[in-house]
Write a structure and sequence with these properties.
single chain; alpha+beta; Tachylectin-2, Chain A; four-stranded antiparallel sheet; 13 helices
Length: 786
């Protein structure tokens, strides 16, 4: 069977995403549009100059072949200058004169992250203090706004200067303002291919299915690169096949197809400070007898990074670097399965924190996850150092105070699930790998209690990192070491790199190419006739609302299933099979009189003491509307033979009206505590919410009566506290199994998360123990949602 390499020939995907510009000289221009019409003219003239995957891949292949033929020297006559362009959310909106998200993107998704921008999400990523947006040079929302980013890459400094000057003139002619310019350059001589701390960079890039050639002996790996896994292209290019646990590819906007979401960060590095700290910490560890007397600063620094300066992995070369071994310098054929405690490559090393490979354990005594499970977390990096390398003898460029660092660029289909997750949940999370804290007890084989591993000390402040070593008697010793931060975030932007077709459409003031658009909620609200919704899958599900007079009637229960800007009616049968079917096709939310102005229903909470008295039921509806924070309203549904009429009972209010929701950014779903409903005039709920980009839950109570007084009964906890939710970082909604509520003191629920669902049970009584009844399955198993 012929190998599928169709993406190599793509003239739609911009060239830096999959092929990579791979030039020594780079500049990124951060641009502001001062006039939308003139900006479209600028895009129209720029579009033919943008590099495609086809031409960049062909050039790179020819360049590599020429290097092999010349014994490793760069060919002097083979040169090119590449251009790539991306846009922020505000940039897309300005060019297209429409909101790219006519209905709010799913909460907790990469689409939401793109819309909000990196400055708004900085706190959740550890960008605080000296790293906070108020200190950024660009992208902080306080300086000039950034609407577009133009990346220019060239083989020589002269070619780069020429290209920059041409683009400066074109921008000025169209009232496109350059608000910041960041140049970067591959370090020269022995530093080539390394970042400023002196370590080889870019070794662990993933392979991409449909672009990189697979190894005939192992189709899961890239040919000629043992250990480099092939990842589904949809993890980097929107619309392509992706991992089944990732955001559904058919839920991406039409305009995102063949494009990629981009993160650009300017990371300043204090090189002398970092190396001075390594020397100090080495002395501390020697005093604690936690490292060999022969250990050097290079030895400790290599363990912090996970590789030696040359790129050779510490897990294979424990005691010394292999600077003259090209095979070792590019080695990816390893995992950490034989080093679960991190005695060789520490659990907190940069390499393990950013890519755990097949060495990630949910708990220390459990087998590690296969590397494939983490495919949906990978990113493609295109970083380049900026500034002169540190030279202790220099008083000018190259001196200790000279600006230097890394121009970090990465591509992914989902900013939240990929870049942000790696940053916030792995690198910046002391308890990752998870469940290492022994809670003050000494686990078998350890000389003292096992603390959490600690944060990544290469890129951030990392207090009390757990340095593990082996005692002479064989026991594992834990020595705390604290690291200061010597890498600072000095600018950050989230952008989208569109396809060539969408780029041309933007030049005409359109967000999608001709024939690729569809009616939006804004158009519908503008008075145009609403077309019948086109058939789509009803997941990820936002909420299931029980039809008040259709529960367990004739062995059937009916629910409204809300998803995006639409809703459908489904039924679920009693019995072991719980057969489900679609009762009515999708309708727009605007067909509900009580939901006018609602972009998406996030969750619904029935008022506990107002369910069907006199045939009328009341609810709180928590909803999102474009450009606004989540709000809630009170609505009613009246039963009757002619259908279910709805009414808006109280207008929208902010979440601040709920004392129990203090500090909550977005309510995702409610789960009633089964045996605590209307007990003593009070009902208890677990509230799952997203705040700062991470979902947590808290326990609240709501009293009967006209005021419905609410109280927070317990502070926020992590999802990991629920054994039945193991492996999930977000719950979209719960659906009670209709005939399994409080049966034998147990209540069962289906838990929906993205494209999948699972079944759990929650027991009555103290602690409400929960457990997983059935593992994850695709929502395709629900015929009513197809």
């Amino acid at each position: 069977m012929a190998t599928d390499l169709r993406l190599r020939d793509s003239e739609e995907i911009q060239g830096d995403i999959l092929a990579g510009f791979k030039k020594d000289n780079v500049s990124v221009l951060f641009l502001k549009f001062e006039d939308a019409a003139r900006a479209r003219d600028w895009v129209r003239k720029l579009a033919p100059q943008i590099s495609t995957t086809r031409e960049v891949a062909a050039f790179n292949e020819a360049f590599s072949e020429a290097r092999r033929s010349s014994g490793g020297d760069d060919p002097k006559t083979l040169k090119a200058t590449w251009l790539g362009v991306s846009f922020t959310y505000e940039g897309l909106r300005m060019l297209s004169a429409t909101d790219p998200f006519p209905t709010p993107p799913p909460v907790g998704s990469g689409l939401e992250a793109f819309k909000e921008g990196s400055a708004k999400r900085a706190g959740a990523l550890g960008d605080s203090g000296d790293n906070s947006p108020e200190n950024w040079l660009f992208g902080n929302g306080k300086n000039q706004p950034v609407h577009a980013l133009l990346k220019i890459s060239a083989d020589t400094e002269n070619d780069l200067r020429t290209a920059i000057e041409a683009q400066r003139i074109a921008a000025a002619e169209n009232r496109v303002l350059i608000v910041y310019q960041q140049n970067a350059q591959t370090l020269l001589g022995s530093r080539r291919g390394k970042e400023h701390f002196g370590f080889k960079d870019g070794i662990s890039e993933p392979g991409v299915k449909g672009f990189d050639r697979p190894n005939p002996a192992d189709p899961e790996e890239v040919e000629g690169h043992p250990g480099t896994r092939l990842i589904p292209a949809g993890e980097f290019v929107c619309g392509e096949e992706n991992d089944r646990f990732s955001f559904p590819r058919d839920q991406y906007p039409v305009w995102s197809r063949n494009g990629s979401f981009q993160v650009v960060r300017r990371l300043a590095q204090d090189v002398p400070g970092w190396w001075s700290q390594v020397s100090i910490k080495l002395r501390e560890l020697k005093q604690a007898k936690a490292v060999p007397e022969s250990a050097t600063t290079e030895w400790l620094a290599a363990r912090m990074v996970g590789r030696w300066r040359s790129g050779a992995p510490v897990c294979k070369f424990h005691d010394a670097d292999k600077p003259n071994d090209p095979g070792a310098a590019n080695d990816n054929d390893f995992d950490f399965g034989d080093d679960p405690e991190g005695l060789v490559t520490p659990l907190w090393s940069h390499l393990r924190k950013t890519s755990p490979r097949a060495g990630l354990q949910e708990k220390p005594d459990e087998p590690p996850f296969p590397a494939k499970v983490l495919d949906g977390r990978r990113i493609i990096r295109r970083g380049t150092p900026y500034g002169a390398p540190f030279d202790p003898a220099s008083e000018g460029p190259g001196g200790p105070d000279d600006p230097r660092g890394l121009l970090f660029i990465c591509y992914q289909a989902d900013i939240q699930r990929q870049f942000e997750f790696i940053q916030a949940d792995w690198m910046d999370q002391p308890n990752f790998p998870p469940n290492r804290d022994s809670g003050g007890t000494t686990p078998p084989g350890h000389a003292n209690p096992r603390p959490v591993p600690g944060k990544d000390p290469v890129t951030q402040e990392a207090p009390d990192v757990d340095f593990e070593s082996r005692e002479p008697d064989g026991l594992i010793k834990h020595t705390p070491v604290s690291f200061q931060q010597f890498v600072r975030t000095t600018g950050s932007v989230y952008a989208f790199m569109p396809s060539i077709s969408v780029l041309k459409a933007l030049a005409d003031g359109q967000l999608t190419p001709q024939g690729g658009g569809q009616s939006t909620a804004q158009e519908q609200a503008g008075g145009r006739p609403q077309p019948t919704p086109q058939p789509v899958k009803a997941y990820p599900c936002d909420e299931f609302l029980a039809v008040p007079d259709q529960q367990r009637r004739g062995g059937q229960s009916q629910y409204w299933a809300f998803h995006g800007d639409r809703c459908r009616l489904i039924s679920v049968a009693d019995g072991s099979g719980h057969a489900d079917r679609k009762v009515e096709d999708d309708t727009w939310l605007t067909t509900w009189s009580c939901l006018q102005g609602v972009g998406r229903v996030d969750c619904v909470l029935p008022m506990p003491d107002l369910q069907n008295p006199g045939g009328k039921s009341w609810y709180w509806v928590f909803h999102s509307t474009a450009g606004r924070q989540q709000q809630y309203r009170a609505v009613s549904i009246t039963c009757g033979t002619g259908g279910h009429s709805t009414a808006l009972e109280r207008p929208d209010r902010d979440l601040t009206a709920w004392g129990s929701l203090s500090g909550v950014g977005q309510v995702d779903c409610w789960l009633p505590v089964p045996d605590q409903q209307r007990v003593g005039g009070k009902s208890w709920y677990w509230v799952f919410h997203t705040t700062g980009g991470r979902q947590q839950y808290r326990l609240v109570s709501i009293a009967d009566g006209s005021a419905h007084t609410d109280v927070r009964e317990r502070t926020d906890r992590e999802l990991s506290q629920w054994g039945s939710l193991n492996g999930l970082n977000r719950v979209d909604c719960f659906l009670p199994v209709p005939d399994c509520q409080r049966v034998g003191g147990q209540s069962e629920f289906w838990v929906f998360s993205g494209q999948n669902y699972r079944r759990i049970t929650v027991a009555d009584g103290n602690g409400h123990p929960d457990r997983q009844v059935a593992g994850d399955r695709s929502c395709d198993a629900w015929s009513s949602l197809l």
